[in-house]
């Protein structure tokens, strides 16, 4: 999970729980005739709106995590199949693949070519 988002998610869940506890508390006040039904309704509606918004934020945390997981999976699959992709690609795409793997220009010599530096992230997969 993205660093910090698990903590935000935990705090958001605690906030939802605290708001639900407040609803329970005002329900007790209503039962004991300490607040009017109208006040109860207004307060409950406000708290439920806050809960709804917090839960919507929780869902966005999950969606962002799912999106990130899918991106990582697709990137991993692409990098693991880079050789096949290279051989099946048109010249322009081959050039992009090489530029991704070797961020610095290829240096040509009489006996071949060499690269000053390999992209370290891509090097983990290649």
Please give a structural write-up.
It is rod-shaped, with a radius of gyration of 28 Å. Strand 1 (107-109) and strand 2 (112-114) form a beta hairpin. Helices cover 74% and strands 5% of the residues. It has a two-stranded antiparallel ribbon with strand order 1-2. The protein starts with a helix and ends with a helix. It has helices at 5-31, 37-80, 82-88, 91-101, 120-123, and strands at 107-109, 112-114. The chain has five helices and two strands, in the order H-H-H-H-E-E-H. With 126 residues, the protein is mainly alpha-helical.
Q: Features of this protein?
A:
126 residues; mainly alpha; two-stranded antiparallel ribbon; 5 helices; 74% helix
Furnish the topology, listing elements before pairings:
Elements: H1 5-31, H2 37-80, H3 82-88, H4 91-101, E1 107-109, E2 112-114, H5 120-123
Antiparallel strand pairs: 1-2
Helix pairs in contact: 1-2
Report the strand count: 2
Overall geometry comes to: rod-shaped
What is the terminal-to-terminal distance? Answer: 25 Å
The percent range for strand residues is under 5%
Integer-rounded radius of gyration: 28 Å
Biggest sheet details: 2 strands, antiparallel
Provide a count of the helices: 5
Kindly report the average pLDDT value: 83
Class from secondary-structure proportions: mainly alpha
Q: What is the chain-wise order of helices and strands?
A: HHHHEEH
């Amino acid at each position: 999970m993205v660093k910090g988002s698990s903590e935000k998610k935990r705090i958001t869940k605690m906030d939802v729980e605290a708001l639900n506890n407040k609803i329970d508390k005002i329900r007790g006040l209503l039962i004991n005739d300490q607040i009017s039904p109208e006040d109860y309704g207004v307060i409950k509606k406000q708290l439920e709106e806050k809960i709804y918004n917090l839960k919507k934020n929780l869902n966005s945390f999950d969606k962002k995590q799912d999106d990130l997981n899918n991106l990582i999976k697709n990137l991993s699959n692409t990098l693991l199949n880079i050789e096949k992709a290279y051989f099946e690609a048109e010249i322009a795409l081959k050039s992009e693949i090489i530029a991704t793997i070797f961020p610095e220009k290829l240096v040509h010599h009489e006996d071949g070519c060499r690269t000053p530096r390999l992209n370290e992230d891509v090097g983990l997969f290649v």
